[in-house]
Amino acid sequence: MTRFSVLDLVPVREGGTLSEAFADTTALARAAEALGCDRFWVAEHHAMDGIAGGATSVVLAHIGNATSRIRIGSGGIMLPNHTPFQIAEQFGTLDALFPGRIDLGLGRAPGAGPELQRALRKNLHQAAEYFPQDVVELRALLTGDYDLPIHATPGLGAQVELWMLGSSLFGAQLAAKLGLPYAFAAHFAPDHLDAALAVYRRDFQPSEALAKPHVMVAMNVFAAETEAEARLLASSQQQSFVRLRSGSPGKLPPPIEGYTDTLPVQAQAMLAHLGQAAAVGTPAQVREQVAAFVARTGADEILLCGATYDAAARIRSLELTLEACETVLAA
């Protein structure tokens, strides 16, 4: 049985405010809970005008207060930006506030230029080299598996569900070695999807937290009553992808009809490549595309992504997607 969850970047739209972005994310989380999604994740990004989830644990605390049952977590925390002790305290606090609901997805990518490194007072590329050790230390701070010279309070004993995130073979290998569930970021980096999942499943070593491999794969999904409307909704995120890849990121732009037809061949090819981990269209079309993706990956869970300029349209897209995918859920 395939389960569905939601990833949100707290997008800030052109002409919108930070307060509106947080309100939209909160409304989406409530909708995801009401529709029966398993998890609602927020991703850590910094110094980007169009993404407001940088203080990830603070955002999660707000979402936790606005919901009551759905699991909430990071998709993910970029551990090289922090110390394991800080993250143990933050997510230990979240677990104490919202017991049994906290996920901690961890990523390695620094994703930062020299300006952000100076702002964070970190050599992020050097810190990324210690990522495996930091993950083990963070897990020990939460579980007490090793006798560390200091205890995190909050943190020690917290029932936080750790996840390894990745878009390459490195994350798959580390998740397998540590016996952690694995989430693959196919929504923006699908190149190594099949190989990474194969490596993870082949090399998985059971742990106290997880007896067998467990995979979640992220994909962009836009559903609407007509295919044309769905493609129009998707054009805002497509514009953001193109701007990001061309070095000029910004706030989430309004949709443009026929957007991809206006692009040079290279940009069209980039979007088509990302489209292998996407479903765009009517509910029937989305059901078919999601089912094919599940069949390809064998995913235990699908992480639904896809920012829309109109926040209400994303909630409607989520409603249509989950209603259409009932047969996928039962498969």
Automatic annotation (TrEMBL):
Residue ranges that the Swiss-Prot or TrEMBL entry lists as coiled coil: none
Source organism's superkingdom? Bacteria
Say which family it is in. To bacterial alkanal monooxygenase alpha and beta chains.
Matching SUPFAM superfamilies, A to Z?
Bacterial luciferase-like (SSF51679)
Concerning Pfam families, the annotation shows: Bac_luciferase (PF00296)
Q: Which UniProt keywords apply?
A: Oxidoreductase
Give start and end of each Luciferase-like domain.
Answer: 3-300
Question: Any idea which GO molecular function terms this record carries?
Answer: oxidoreductase activity, acting on paired donors, with incorporation or reduction of molecular oxygen
Q: What is this protein called?
A: Luciferase-like monooxygenase
Q: Which GO terms describe its cellular component?
A: cytosol
